[in-house]
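Write out the 3D structure for:
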Amino acid sequence: MADVDNLVLEHLRHIRGAVDGLRDDMREVKQRIGAVEREVALIHVELAQVHVKVAELSDRVDRLSDRIERVEHRLDLTEA
């Protein structure tokens, strides 16, 4: 019976060691996922800023286009 008890204890120690290793691995995975989430959030903010700049440039191009059309019209450079 002592042999069985020792065998069970040995298996339990092995299982405990494996669980401890998994716990450490999970801690590292959580840290790495947190870092990835922070980077994705930063990229999201930067993309939003780029979208705003593109929208501003588009507005400027539209205004310039309107001004060019008015100048062409005043100089009678427009096609009929």
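The chain has a mean pLDDT of 94.
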